Amino acid sequence: MSFKSRTGKIFSALTLTLSLLGAPIAQADTTLRIGNQGEPASLDPHFLSGDWENRIAGDLFMGLTTEDPEGNAIPGAAESWTVSDDGLVYTFKIRDHKWSDGQPVTAQDFEYAMRRILLPETAAEYASLLYIIKNGEELNTGKAKPEDLGVHALDDKTLEITLKGPAPFLISMLTHYTAFPVPKHIVEKYGKDWTKKEHIATNGPYKLVEWLPNTHVKVTKNELFWDAANVKIDNVIFYPQEDAAALIKRMRAGEIDCIYKFPSGQIDWLRQNMPEETKIAPYLGTYYYPINTKRAPFTDKRIRQALSMAIDREIIMDKVLKTGELPAYSMVPPGTSNYKEPSYVTWKSMPMADRITKAKELMKEAGYGDDKHLKVQLRYNTDDNHKRIAIAVAQMWKKIGVETELFNSEVKVHYAELKQGNFEVARAGWVADYNDPQNFLFLLESTSKSLNYGNYDNPEYDKLMEDAYLESDLKKRAQIMGKAEAIAMEDAPIIPIYYYVSKNLVSTKIKGWKDAINDTHRTRWLSIEK
User: Fold this and answer.
1) Which of 54, 66, 185, 310 stands the most exposed, by the fewest C-beta atoms within 10 Å?
2) What DSSP string describes 46-88?
């Protein structure tokens, strides 16, 4: 008898004995394997911009507030807070918890992180999200010193944040990775290398095990996380593979447990073959095409308006996607909190035939017609949905004499080009970081820099948005932002295509998954059924 077989019998007998005696039996580690569909640019919260990066960062780090299973803001690294009568000063009590290297998490870590992301030399593209903080914009533009920022550690466990104007969305906004803490003691020691696995420390439910670029990111349970006793999944592996069809095959083979954003073209097959795994839910986001307003001839708003008018969104919803998305005629989705009905484009109810006629007239006024066709390059990142929509749009633009060249690239390259302004018209999408119209409309402010992909610049729009920041009356604030959105929809720096629904595939063995309006599903709330 071999040693292996004898060992097997001995183990079986021991297992039975322990079971009969009521002794605990060690369980194998549970591992969640996610088809994340994107390679992270960084693990540093100050250099992220995509939802695929947010899924990883949100397992590693935790802000003052965090998300519950349904995506609502709840206490995170802060156990409680108070708000001044004028709504401008928030005082947070930092809960007693540690970084994964054993050092305590302090209010100074948050003070340091918020100053760091806003420093001009950091060049964080998402910094403008924190402009609601007093002197946030001034610090980011070199007009104020770090100590002038309205974020101050009053002691190790007390953090005070002062705003420049009332922000009903602040508690929700603080769940976002721009407001995550970073370990001051490590960042100052290792600089840009602080996120390497041999250096990094995290305060979230997981810590980094390895990152093999274009292969996977693996994290493991952080035993020093303040709520580690309730974290049921031991390991998470994020696969960056962007080929959704290949991921579905891997899921069918048992190699993947969850896939974010399955292609709509697969919906009929999925409903027939994987109905229990198919999860479709409302999702607060807008799929749109930014137009480069600084590149001729797209500097002419008549061309931008014509391109938007010529797109038959209903056909895209009914024939291309077929998964419940709604056609979009505004930047802000309907139903967004602290708002009214969005400011739709004025031609929303115009019959399609009339829109084509009007679009042709606008193109003619701009110098294009039968003898001179506009040539457009339409860029999109590698994804079956994006490709199918782009092909449909190109066919629609033919009706107004526009010739379209399609150009695709992987997601990391695609967004890098958009941020540099290296495009004419391109695919983009925005999902709310917090449920408020400001989180959509700030993208079109001239101060939003690389997030304002098309470099839209309208002083009247900027002034209205600035007024909205300072308005404490929610009704008046909504009216101001409504005027701003109306101006943008007339100027057409973007082409809204549809309002999102989340489309995920989730194994039936995963428990705790709930529909979330922001499609945020933190691993700490999930478990895997044996």
Assistant:
1) 185
2) GG--SHHHHHHHHHH---SEEE-TTS-EEESSEEEEEE-TTS-
